[in-house]
Amino acid sequence: MVLESTQRILVVHRERPLSVIDSERLSVPIAIDQVSFDISILEQLENCYDLLVLDWHLEQPDARGVLDAFRQTAPESWVLALAAEVPDDDPVDRGVDEVLVEPVAPTALAGTLERLLFQCAYERTMHNLFRLSTERAVLETELESDVAVGDQYQSVVQELQTCRERAASIRAELSGDSFDQTLRQLFSE
User: Fold this and answer.
1) Which of helix, strand or coil describes residue 21?
2) Which domain holds residue 19?
3) End-to-end CA distance of the chain
């Protein structure tokens, strides 16, 4: 399995749209948490989620406010908006990564969830790859200056190789269109 750790999804939708998903059929291990509307949603937003599934027409509280608060809490997570009709305002302009107009077939919803989770994992892996590449370059300079960082350098080189392999395995799971979309989003930041 490419994504070995369980991917966490938070659902802010009164009708529980993910209840139609058979998580055993997904190639990604997931855990789905449904917010409780009996307590403050803000108290339930955490940085442990990989994906937020949001009812775009939610009024109490307002979906845009939930989105803004979630982006502050979990800036590296992705957001899927579900809308009962085509929204007048474009959710993507507000920071949503994908919009689906309901009703959505369970297979289409499951495919979208998987793709978004892979894209999120790929983006995080690429950020880590860039960080490790920079760290390796700094350590190489220090090695040339006879600073004793040999063990640290070897550790970073190994991490970098592991990160490259992870990126390649995730990229292999994404279709060509999904991969292109992920790259566009990654480079737009």
Assistant:
1) coil
2) 7-113
3) 29
Helix (H), strand (E) at residue 78: strand 78-83
Q: CA-to-CA distance for 163 and 160, rounded, in angstroms?
A: 5
Contact by Cβ (8 Å): 29, 118? no
| Shared domain check, 41 and 100 | yes
Rounded distance between C-alpha atoms, residue 8 and residue 45, angstroms = 12
Find the Cα–Cα–Cα–Cα dihedral 19, 20, 23, 24, rounded to 10°.
130
Closest to 127 (Cα-Cα) out of 73, 98, 166, 93: 166
* Run means of pLDDT, 10 residues per run, the chain, 189 residues: 82 84 82 91 91 91 92 93 85 88 88 91 92 93 86 92 89 69 53
Tokens of 46: 């955490």
What per-residue confidence (pLDDT) applies to 160? 93
Asked which of 62, 93, 113 is the last residue of a domain, the reply is 113
Query: 2 lies in a domain?
Result: no
- d(CA 57, CA 83) in angstroms, rounded, equals 6
Rounded Cα distance between 78 and 42, Å, is 17
